[in-house]
Predict the 3D structure of the following.
Amino acid sequence: MKAVFVVNPAAKGGKALGRWTAFRKTVAFPYQEFMTKGPGHAKAIARGFAAHQEKENVLLIAFGGDGTVHEMIAGAAGAGHIVVGSVGAGSGNDFGRGFRTFGSAEEIGAYLGRRHASPALDMGEVSFGDGATFVNSAGIGFDAVISRGSGRSSLKPLLNRMGLGKFVYALYTVRALFTFRTFGLEVTHDGERQEYRDVWFATVSNQPYYGGGMKISPKSDPADGLIELTVVSRLSRMKLLLVFGSVFFGAHTAFREVDCRQGRSFSLKADRAVPLHTDGEDAGNTESGEPVVFTVRPEAWRLAGQQRTGRSGIKHESTP
Ligand SMILES: Nc1ncnc2c1ncn2[C@@H]1O[C@H](COP(=O)(O)OP(=O)(O)OP(=O)(O)O)[C@@H](O)[C@H]1O
């Protein structure tokens, strides 16, 4: 198996480059190296490998954050000869909380030598713009506003350099808490229609974690051919803060204002334009009254190493 590193030198406010310089000295197997030049480049590199099947299978290793591995999986989707691995070198690294990642070059060497499992896992697809994908989660509302604000923040590089990257997220959470306007939502799922009022956010998950370690969807399993919807609605600002705090432990699902559902497809129609995120990256605004469909694409990509999460079944809460 051929090993290819795709390095995002800009991840974690540029710290990833220094980490890569040290990491590459520890690599004791032959490899190819690519440096990404900007948004979309990691996807294009993965697409290039996906389009040309050689004799050898390819292990594509993302060296960066969630954005980098998200792009690489999108580019490699459907190519059976590509296995995707990751070394978490970003600020949030939610991918590494839900999926097995490599901690050292030695581990990658061992994987290449021993041919560990490469399970085929699910990916999410979103009918938005030219079509978007997610491996962790995608959603609309309050959390997407935070992703947008913290992603664009001029404070992010500075706080990242100081090792305080997570503060950017906290800062924008508090800001959104005071400025966000809730919305009405219609969800269609399995031929059933559900209406929600005063919605803060609706997130569709493929794995349990998002937002830098919040366990938003505790029962999500990227190997089950299903995705999970979490809708948070009809909460005061203060109670939302409480629910947000409990998300770190996955305890929020006990609140009656948190509704969880499981399925293969969810159509979400908001009554006003709302920001959308895919894997924590800003994806633009949905249009008022226009449905956005979130669908699971089962066994779309292969992960290097045994999958770490995996349970089945989900508690269906009562709806508001
Ligand atoms: N050379 C580059 N210069 C600037 N941005 C780049 C470059 N290469 C890639 N990018 C972009 O950097 C963005 C952030 O990358 P990534 O998500 O990997 O790191 P992060 O934001 O630090 O980590 P995390 O998403 O885990 O918090 C991505 O949108 C990616 O497309």
